[in-house]
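May I ask for a protein sequence together with how it folds?
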Amino acid sequence: MLYVRTLRSANFIWLTSDNMHHQWLLLAACFWVIFMFMVASKFITLTFKDPDGYGAKQEPLILTAVTKVEEVHLPEEKHWPEEFQPTGKAFTGNLIRQPLVHMERLELLRNVCRDAALRDLSHTAVSKFVLDRIFVCDKHKILFCQTPKVGNTQWKKVLIVLNGAFSSIEEIPENIVHDHEKNGLPRLSSFSDSEIKKRLNLYFKFFIVRDPFERLISAFKDKFVHNPRFEPWYRHEIAPGIIRKYRKNRTETKGLQFEDFVRYLGDPNHRWLDVQFGDHIIHWVTYVELCAPCEITYSVIGHHETLEDDAPYILKAAGIDHLVSYPTIPPGITVYNRTKVERYFSGISKRDIRRLYARFEGDFKLFGYREPDFLLN
C-alpha cells in the first residue's frame, strides 16, 4: 500500500515537472517569435524609409541634388568664347545657387524685352551715349556698363587693376578712379564700328542694378546734399534749373528739395533740361538709357542688394577671380532700406510718385523689382 502511494507521488511530480518544462519551452518560443518579428520590422522600416524624412539615409540624396545644381551653366550667348563658360565646380556655399539666380534674371529680362506694352520703356538705341557708359578691358575681354550710384567706383577699380594701370586696388588714388584720362579705362565709344561690334559679340559683359527709387535717393543725397567730391555744378547750375521749372512755392529760398527732384524726373518733358545738364544726368537716368539691356546681350546682371554673392560670382564667371578681388563691402551697406525710401516719398504727392514710376517702370519690370507699396495704398 505504501509502495503504491509512493509510486503515485512520483508520477505526479514527474508529470508536473514535464508540464512546466513544456510551458517554459512554449514561452521561449513565443519570445523568439516576437524577437524575430521585431528584427524583421526594423529591417522593413530601414529598407523602405520615406526619402523625404531625416536621417543617415538622406546623405546620398543631398549629394545628388548638389551635383545637379553644380552642373548648371549660364545660358550661352551667340559667339561667347569657351573660356568664359563657368563650370560651377568651384562654387561653394551660396555660390552653388548663383547660376540659377542669374539664369532667372536673364530670362526675366528677355521676357520683358519681348513685351510690346513696355517697348517704349525697355528699348533704346545703342547710341554714343550708351557706348560712353561701357568701359573696356581688352586684356581679359570684359565690358562693364556703368550705372552710377550702384557701387560702380569699386568695379572701376577692379578694371583699372586688370588693365594694368595699377598693381592693386589699394594703390589707386581716389581722384584717379573717375578721371578717364588717367585711369586707363577706355570707353567702347572710342573704337571703330567694326571693333565695337566685335567686342559686343565676343566679350563678357555685365552691369549692376539697384532698386530704382532707392538709387534716385542716393543720387539726390550724393549730388545735391552732401556732394563729397566737391562738384559745384550740381548745386549751382543744375539745382537752380530744376527749382525754376518745378518748385511750386517760388518764395522758398532753400536748396533743391527731393520733391523738386521727383517732379523733374517724372515730367514727360524732362528731356529739354537733360540736354542742358549733359552727361551729369547719368546719375539718375534709367538703366535702359544707360546700358540698353534689350539691345545688348549681357552675360550677367548683378544686383546691389545681393552684391556679397554676385561680386565673387561675376569675377568667377569672367575668369578673373584669381587675379583680383572685389573690395570689402561694409556690413549692411547693400541692404534695401524700405524705411528710408518711404520716408523720402512720404511728403510727395501720389500724382508725382505715379509719374515718376511711369518713367522708371521699365527698370522695375526688367530687373524684378516690386512696385513700391506706397503706390498701391
User: Anything to note?
Assistant: The chain has 17 helices and four strands. The radius of gyration is 35 Å. The first strand starts at residue 134 and ends at 137.
